[in-house]
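User: Hi! I'm working on a homework problem where we have to compare a predicted structure to a textbook description. Could you give me the structure for the chain below?
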Amino acid sequence: MTIGELKRKSKGDMKNRYGFAILAMILLNLVSFGAVTAGLFIGVILVGGAVRCCYTAFYVDIARREYRGVDSVYRGFQQFARALVANIYIFLINLAVAFVFGLLFLLLLAITHATSGQAAIIAVFVIIAMLVAMFLVNIKLSFVFYVMNHQTQLSGAECIRASWKLSKGMFWKIVLFNLSFIGWWILVLVTLGGMYLYVSPYYDTAQANLYLDAAGDAYGAGNEVSRPAEAA
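Assistant: Happy to help. Predicted structure tokens:
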């Protein structure tokens, strides 16, 4: 499917489902807020992966038009331990990228003997490059929690490898898909978050459809995706 087709299908999938999406968002945000309140950063690490599993499970059900009520919202918590491991790996991967660019910044300062003004300019360019690198790396990790919900025999690390392989043949399509929503996210900012309740469910449904398109929507017995790790 083209990006336009994915987005049109997603609008149809979300028809009469926005109320459910907002309810799911409220419930899962309550879980996240409770985790932050209880453990700040550690709380986010502990439950962040499971919450993302819940979101992916919910929107895959919406995309497949198989909404299952509370089960759709909270099913991702069944993957809690694996989601925790994957979330830690993802955090460490992003930390490693930040560390590399931090070293690059220090190296550039040492080589150029930059003044404070020049150092500030270098810092801006390094930060922009780091954010772009993180964006591209996380494109490869887009499907981790989708795979996790439907390949329950895989470990957290294996789900990361499966996502990396699954995105291999459509890397730039995923990049363009995300870039196609920039206008919507700008609209969210312009409306001071007022459009978020529309844009977020729309985007998440479209991303679920993108995953199903990548995996061929090959659901076998036990609600598992057939061999997503080998998909090109």
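For your comparison, note the following. The chain is about 75% helix and 0% strand. Confidence is low (pLDDT under 50) at residues 217-232. Good luck with the assignment!
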